[in-house]
Amino acid sequence: xxxxxxxxxxxxxxxxxFLSDGSALPPLHHHAYAAVDLHPIVLLPGNSCSQLDAxxxxxxxPSSSAPASCGAGKGKGRWFRLWKNGTALGxxxxxxxxxxxxxxxxxxxxxDYRNVAGVRxxxxxxxxxxxxxxxxxxxxxxxxxxxxxxxxxLGRIGYREGENLFGAPYDSxxxxxxxxxxxxxFAAFTADxxxxxxxxxxxxxxxxxxxxxxxxxxxxxVEFLTRSATPWRRRFVKHLVMVSTGAGGIVVPMxxxxxxxxxxxxxxxxxxxxxxTVFAALPSTKVFGDAPLVVxxxxxxxxxxxxxxxxxxxxxxxxxxLYRTRALPVNVGFRAPRVPMTAVxxxxxPTPEQLVYWDGDFSKAPEVVYGDxxxxxxxxxxxxxxxxxxxxxxxxxxxxxxxxNATHSGIISDEFAMKRVISEILxxxxxxxxx
Length: 435
Ligand SMILES: *[C@@H]1O[C@H](CO)[C@@H](O)[C@H](O)[C@H]1NC(C)=O
Ligand SMILES: *[C@@H]1O[C@H](CO)[C@@H](O)[C@H](O)[C@H]1NC(C)=O
Ligand SMILES: *[C@@H]1O[C@H](CO)[C@@H](O)[C@H](O)[C@H]1NC(C)=O
Hints:
One of its GO terms (molecular function) is O-acyltransferase activity. InterPro entries: AB_hydrolase_fold, LACT/PDAT_acylTrfase. This protein has a six-stranded parallel β-sheet, with helices on both faces. Strands 1-7-3-4 form a four-stranded mixed β-sheet, with helices on one face. The protein has a four-stranded mixed β-sheet with strand order 12-11-14-15. The chain has helices at residues 4-7, 86-89, 95-102, 148-156, 184-203, 216-226, 230-236, 252-260, 268-272, 285-288, 306-312, 317-332, 379-388, 415-430, and strands spanning 12-14, 41-44, 52-56, 80-83, 104-107, 112-115, 119-124, 165-167, 209-214, 237-243, 294-295, 300-301, 341-347, 351-356, 367-371, 398-404. The chain has a domain at 52-123. By secondary structure, the chain is α/β, with parallel strands linked by helices. The chain is globular, with a radius of gyration of 21 Å. The structure holds 2-acetamido-2-deoxy-beta-D-glucopyranose (3 copies).
C-alpha cells in the first residue's frame, strides 16, 4: 500500500493525454510530394529531449544538500518547468532546488525507481513534437539534437503536426526494466505510445505508422515493439526508421560516470547518477566482449567488468545490483523489433573506444583512445545490428544505411545527413513487403 501514492506522483502526461475521435477532424492534405502516399509518423527523440513539468506537494522535504527554501512553493498546486529549465539551472540560487527535485530514488518496497517524495512530474505535450527540446537551453538553443530541424524538413514533404506527424516524448530519467519487473514510468509511456500509434493510424485512414527514432528513442521503440503482440505490430506499425542507435551500448557513459563521482553534491551531474538511465547505454558484453574499455596500470575493465567498474567509480552495492539485475538484462537482451526496419548511422567521426586512467585516478580526465563511430555511438555497436536484427529469421526487412561524417546529433540536423534520413523515410513510405 505504501507504494500506491507514488503511482500518482509520476507517469502523467500534461495535459493528460486524451484523444479525440478522428472522424470529427479535417481531412488530410498533402501539400508536397503528392506522389507519395504518406503514412503517419511518430517521432521518439533522444535522451533528455523531453520536457518535464513538476509540482511540489506538502510531502516534499529538500534533501540535506539543498537549501530549505527549496520547499517554499510546495502545496500550492503550482506547476513549473523542471526540465529543462536553463534559466533555473544557470542560477546558483535556485539550481540546487532543481537538481534536488529532479533526483530519482529506488523504492525497495515497490521494487522500482520513483521521484523523490512530494515531487509530481509529467511529460509536456505528449502526442506532439512541441515538447522536443527546451527553448530555454543555452547548451542547445537550436534544439538540433531533438528533431527540431527534422520536423521542419518533414513539413516540407507534407507532414503536419497533429495530422500525420506526432511526437512521443518520455521522461528520460527512467528506462525499461526486464519483462516481469516493475517499471511504472516505462509502462505508462508504452500505454500512451500504443494509444498514440492507434490514433495516428485511425486518423490516416487506417494506414500503419512509421516510427522514426533518434539515439535513446530507438531503445525505447525497440523495447516497446518486442513487447507488443505480433498482430498488433503488423496492423499498426509499417516501419521503424532507427537513427543513431546501436545494439550494444556505447563507451562514452563510462567516462561521464567516472567524472560525476567527483562532481559537487547538489550538481546536476550528481543528480543524474540517480537516474536508471545512466546504466542503460553501458557497453554490452554481447557486442564489446572482453575488449579492455577502461585501462589502468593495475587492472583493465571490459564490458564483463562493469559491476567492478561501477563500484570503483563510487556506486553503492545496491546500485551495482540494480545495474546487474535491471539494466544488464535489457542491454544484452536487445533484439530484432520484428517490424520492417531501416537503421541509419553515422561513421568516420572519432569516437571514444578506450579510456586510459593509467594511475587509476578516476578524478582526472582520461587519455581517450578513439575508434570509428559518430562521436558517441561506436561503430561496432551499430554493426552488431546486422547480426542481432538482420540475421533474426523472424525479422523480415532490414536495411542499414551508413552516412559518412555524420555526427551523433548532426545526423538529424546537418543538411547533407538529414537529406539521407528523409530519403529513407520516403522509401519506407513507398515500400511494400511480404509479411
Ligand atoms: C524556470 O525556473 C524559474 C526559476 O525558478 C521560474 O521562474 C520559471 O517559471 C521556470 N520556467 C518555466 C517555463 O516554468
Ligand atoms: C590492459 O589492456 C591493455 C590494452 O589492451 C593491455 O596492453 C594490457 O596488457 C592490459 N593490462 C592488464 C593488466 O591486463
Ligand atoms: C569526410 O570528412 C573527411 C575529413 O574532412 C574528408 O576528407 C572526406 O572526404 C569526407 N568524406 C565524405 C564521404 O564526405
